[in-house]
Amino acid sequence: MDPKQITKNLYAMRQLIDVMLADAHRDGRTSFLLEDVKSIFDSYSQQSKTLKTHYPDLTFNLRDWNIAAHINQDHDQIHATTLRALMNQIDYCLNILPSISSYTNKIEQPLSNKIFVVHGHDTEMREAIARTLMKLGLEPIILDEQTDRGKTIIEKFFDHANDASFAIVLLSPDDLAYSAKTGPSTTKLRARQNAILELGFFLGKLGRDHVLTLYRDVENFEIPSDYSGVLFKQYDGANGTWRLKLTKELKDLKYDVDANKL
Q1: What's the pTM value of the predicted model, to 2 decimals?
Q2: DSSP character at residue 165
Q3: Treating both helix axes as pointing N-terminal to C-terminal, what angle do 193-206 and 3-27 enclose, rounded to 10 degrees?
Q4: How many other CB atoms sit within 10 Å of the CB of residue 152?
Q5: What is the pLDDT of residues 124-138, one digit of tens each?
Q6: CA angle centred on 221, ends 120 and 183, rounded to 5°
Q7: What is the crossing angle of helices 34-54 and 3-27, to 10°?
């Protein structure tokens, strides 16, 4: 395997762990189900073995991970501190890769025609985006439409996310939420938490210029405020102007797309 590809895989793995830990912190959780993290440990093991092959003189301190040694007494959970330790080990791997200097906030990769579509419960938005991408000659990746092939959700997400060079995140008013400090009087509509989680993942993996966020403009809908510089475009219906804005963003990234096909 090419060392640059190892860097991409490790960087994406690190971003996934980072967003999982952040999500757990928000929910007050301190552990993860074994089935949700085993694929991450397995992927790291594979990458570290490849690293040792490429850089035997640099990797003598590289730690092998035996996930069985970190499972709790119930044999089904991994503590958050173990994931943090693994993330530190991934950082060590990244630091010893000679090509790491060119991989900071974004991993450059050849453009593919696969576009990952992150969505909530708004079926109309999801279908409109999928139809538009197909008209442009691109392939939408909608996770729940892909076969499982015996994989966990995280394994499935990781595999398909690695195939995409661009992501479209759909924010629809699916949930009601309010701050614990202010109470129910400040209840607002929000996007599903999985959509926000995956938005953060793709910002880290692809860079903000390869992520477009579409939101449905309804009253009292809260748009995330912590993503400075992210492209937020209003979804104005199945045949709205967002289609031309999306096409322009793709053309600017050298995608071979033609707005006349819409």
Answers
A1: 0.61
A2: S
A3: 150
A4: 16
A5: 999 999 999 999 999
A6: 105
A7: 150
